[in-house]
Amino acid sequence: xxxxxEVYKKYPNGIMAANGFDVKIQAGEFVYVVxxxxxxxxxxxxxxxxxxxxxxxxxxxxGIDIAKLKTNRVPYLRRNIGVVFQDxxxxxxxxxxxxxxxxxxxxxxEPKVIKQKVMEVLDLVGLKHKARMMPDELSxxxxxxxxxxxxxxxxxKVVIADEPTGNLDPETSWEIMNLFEExxxxxTTIIMATHNREIVNxxxxxxxxxxxxxxxxxxQRGDYGYES
Length: 228
What we know:
Residues 2-228 form the ABC transporter domain. The protein has 228 residues and is an alpha/beta fold. The chain has seven helices and ten strands. A six-stranded mixed β-sheet has the order 6-7-8-3-9-10, sandwiched between helices. Helix 6 (170-185) links the parallel strand 7 and strand 8 (189-193). The longest helix is centred in the C-terminal third of the chain and has 16 residues, at 170-185. The chain is globular and about 45 Å long. The model has no long low-confidence stretch (mean pLDDT 91).
């Protein structure tokens, strides 16, 4: 599904955020990405959906070397990648339905298909009854559910989540994790950067640990390994 080979990323300020990443992620895996703040986790995540380009190396997603991908082809790449952010990134002037539908409208899907798909994913995340509400009428957990619905409405093969529970209380964080587990059980690959020690140690999956731009640990059913 995803392969990084000898990937380096050096920022203009001299920081080496990726120092020779070599990793393979298979279809259907659930992978946590952990490490101290500033270790390179976000760079690792962002390079997968071409928010950042590597300085050197190859990154293959679904057989496409995205490091060499032309800028005008990036939107096509992202049709098969769902992205969930810590701060939700919802469009505040659009309803819940419209926020989720937006991902389908940009690829010019038919209105009938849009309505069906949007209501299906809103039902999955438990927000079908709030389709006409505005984001500021929702709790933080509900906003994150909308963000997740938006990320999966295209039926992507992989969902990349960058600290998706970072702004949520513990109870809501568990609800969001259960939702990710459900999505993963349907065959979608999940890659999640997180600082949540309890979640990583309780819901065991593969753990990739990054420190100073280096992958220092890659374990199946690993633990968090850091003080939170």
